[in-house]
Design goal:
The structure is a homodimer of 416-residue chains. Chain A is α/β, with parallel strands linked by helices. In chain A, 44% of the residues lie in helices and 21% in strands. Chain A has 15 helices and 16 strands. In chain A, strand 14 and strand 15 form a beta hairpin. The relative contact order of chain A is 0.13. Strand 16 of chain A pairs parallel with strand 13 of chain B, so a sheet runs across the interface.
């Protein structure tokens, strides 16, 4: 097993060298071919997918998990249109982000280059195979994919199509490799490939991510969880605050950028909380509040210390009344996950201070936490969200799959 | 031990929160106080240093190692002037590197913030204590320092001065903490502090760096070694090539950006190599060459495969004649360390292709490899050179000790 994985690493490294100098047209061509072939191969993809779905049903997997596996016509269309969108993004490679001249005449700059070889370890959804590979290719990288065993047949077929499309565009098929075994040892071997894999990006639940971080010898870009806060300030527009909080909690409660804790300035709590609580009640949200919250919202369940740390991913919300913004920031610093925090306020000074002092991957004024997403923020696409501070902090698009090297043009400069 | 290190981590995290919002004036003040106090405390620093030096001599450490330990008047002056230079650098924190508006009116930007808590593990030179801490402070971070046991008394005294100066400027003393034990277990405990330390930067020999990489749970910024190449192209200016090669090899042979392998286009080898060999001979450089090199330079020692991988850090140079630039690039890719490579050529197309295709942290045209250094490239200062591609690739200055968070200003935007 180890030898096979090392061989994949070697091939990926060779492919990465070719990808790094591949021109934009060829990369775009490969991505467009992938989209066309996915649509044309709907039949064979469907067959492979059926094997996975039947096996999942046979093993009695819960309905929600089976749903995630299914490559419906709609899912296939989304994959193809995702590929076409990535194809049309500007090519980040070769951009010289800055250039300056030294006193000795040496002209120094920083040029954007691919990261090299990217490893993706993910769970059930087979669309990750296509979406993640597309971004890696666009940024000139090679990628080694290791999907969940439930989607094994689907992923294998999808990876074949991606590889054929690369070859068809004159690019190395090995720029996309799929670990075609469900043996768990293969993941460990992959995580040990520090000489071949430049970065590992795990996609999935906290357990998977912790496993990758514990075992990876190379850097890992990841977030464990999103305990996101909205702070409703003394000078909040009550109606706006209600709408933002409702959107942040209920628009899609099962995702990492949904609000998990609501913090309310005590001066506005009396006016805001009963109104908000009614709206949450209508939306089926269970509230768990501090003493002051419960005084204003009688049917609210008492919150325990554990609630402040909780990522419910469900229609449950922790609520705390705070004496001022500083206490709100202290709460966020102590219990938060550095993912996404928003303030609702009409006060200029506090809006700016919140932006400065809260060190989360996205900090918003007067907008929903649900905007922490590569598409929503305008990166064009997203391979994941990082709450590691190294290299990338927040949603990662094509640019985050690159680095910069220094370049220098001289005419004989020597060091004295 | 572990509890003590965890407590340091906790204090560093708290200090980092305060440092992140410290204004530029206060940080500059702290750095200037450090410079003044170092000069004023020359006596007490000298006493502490004497203990280390005497112990080193007593244990029979080699002269070069003892030299590195000594805080001479000159070394102390350099530390102080280094602090003043860092004090005067622009503050990177708070810079908004880009800002754009989304179709829904949300204004999105990226704001530069400190990395958080930085760990530095280093060997003998006590000046690293001051230089590294200064850069971390400037970028708004907290730092935990673990120096070599040989410099224990010196480092302890220097760290005390840094801490007093921080407090004097109204900043948390715990923004600089020194692990005041020579117990090796303390390093392992520090490397396990993933929840408190955002990044580890090892400074020293390859063994130390490998130890840190093997044991660190957090990301590590590092380079193992510098096997740097100069490629003398067919269209090189022979005289310029000779000067650049001589500078790259002999100006300071013991450092990571010195040339270790010279690659020469076969069409220019006859004109260049005898001239260059004479110059190297005069400078006391031992040449180890391929067959073709030896045909042109008769007294050259035959090179073995191991020579192409070697980082001599000495007056030894491997020399290989190549049929063309593509073979030179293949050689660099196969044997190099992605540190620094230069081409000498007057040919426009090849100069640009070399810059594009060689993926090292610094790629130069017509200049010495010795320029891969934060000061030389204009970063103002340097905490080390990274050949990891994540986060930083090349010399790391103040900016590389920061990251960016996303910020967004809205007026009630909701996700639909």
């Amino acid at each position: 097993m180890r030898e096979k994985i090392v061989e994949m690493g070697r091939k990926a490294r060779d492919a990465a060298h070719l990808m790094a100098k591949a021109d934009s047209t060829r990369k775009r061509d490969a991505l467009e071919r992938m989209a066309v072939t996915l649509e044309r191969e709907a039949g064979s993809i469907g067959e492979a997918n059926r094997l996975d779905v039947e096996a999942a049903v046979g093993r009695g997997l819960p309905g929600a998990k089976v749903d995630r596996l299914i490559i419906s016509e709609k899912v296939l269309k989304e994959m193809a249109s995702g590929l076409r969108e990535v194809a049309m993004l500007p090519d980040p490679v070769g951009e010289v982000t800055r250039m300056w001249t030294r006193p000795n005449g040496l002209r120094v700059g920083r040029m954007r280059i691919p990261l090299g070889v990217i490893g993706i370890v993910y769970e059930s959804r087979p669309n990750v195979t296509v979406d993640a590979a597309a971004l890696c290719i666009k940024a000139g990288n090679a990628v080694i994919l290791r999907g969940g065993s439930e989607a094994f047949h689907s992923n294998t077929r999808l990876a074949e199509i991606l590889r054929e499309s690369l070859a068809g565009a004159g690019l190395p098929a090995d720029a996309v490799q799929f670990v075609d075994t469900t043996d768990r040892q293969a993941v460990l071997d992959l995580l040990g490939l520090e000489d071949y894999v430049d970065v590992m990006i795990p996609r999935g639940g906290e357990d998977l991510i912790r496993f990758v971080v514990q075992n990876a010898r190379m850097p890992v870009l990841k977030h464990y969880k999103g305990v996101c806060h909205v702070y409703v300030d003394l000078d909040a527009d009550i109606d706006m605050a209600k709408k933002i909080c409702l959107n942040a909690k209920v628009q899609r409660p099962g995702v990492c950028n949904a609000m998990e804790t609501l913090l309310v300035h005590e001066g506005v709590a009396g006016a805001f909380l009963p109104v908000a609580a009614a709206a949450f009640r209508d939306a089926g949200v269970e509230l768990r509040g501090c003493e002051k919250t419960r005084a204003l919202v009688p049917d609210c369940i008492p919150a325990t210390e554990a609630d402040w740390y909780a990522e419910y991913l469900d229609l449950i919300l922790a609520v705390r009344v705070v004496p001022d913004m500083d206490e709100a920031i202290r709460h966020i610093t102590r219990y938060g996950s550095q993912h996404t925090e928003a303030i609702v306020t009409e006060n200029f000074e506090r809006a700016h201070r919140f932006i400065q002092e809260v060190q989360s991957s996205l900090v918003l004024v007067n907008a929903s936490t649900r905007f922490n997403d590569g598409f929503q923020l305008g990166l064009g696409a997203e391979i994941g969200i990082s709450t590691s501070r190294l290299h990338a902090f927040g949603p990662m698009g094509v640019e985050e799959l690159t680095t910069t090297k220094f370049i220098a043009f001289g005419n004989g400069q020597l060091r004295s």
